[in-house]
Amino acid sequence: MASPLLAVVLSFFIPGLGQFYTGQLIKAVVLFVLAVIFGFFSMELIGLPFYLLVWLYSMYDAYTAAKGTA
Is Membrane one of the keywords UniProt gives this record (predicted)? Predict the structure, then answer.
């Protein structure tokens, strides 16, 4: 049984980690790779809005996925 709060906290620190915790392995890898790519481009300010979207979606999705398994 996955904890929604723990899933959000994990995704807060590393996007995709909450999905890994809830068993969504492919989604976890995709979100992590996107966060790394957009994080790299955020040094040029181009990727910052996209990184924030991936980060926020990662937390939201981890919460809803963990709540669905509870």
Answer: yes
Neighbours of 63 (CB within 10 A): 21
Number of structural domains (the chain) is 1
What's the half-sphere exposure (Cβ side, CA atoms, 13 Å) at 65?
Answer: 22
Collapsed DSSP state (helix, strand, coil) of residue 56:
helix
Side chain identity at 58, as an amino acid letter?
A: S
Q: For residue 26, give its domain range.
A: 4-69
**How deeply is 14 buried, as exposed, middle or buried, from its count of CB atoms within 10 A (0-12, 13-18, 19+)?**
middle
The answer to whether the CB of 22 falls within 8 A of the CB of 2 is: yes
Task: Encode the chain (70 residues) as per-residue pLDDT tens digits.
Answer: 789 999 999 999 999 999 999 999 999 999 999 999 999 988 888 889 999 999 999 999 999 999 986 5
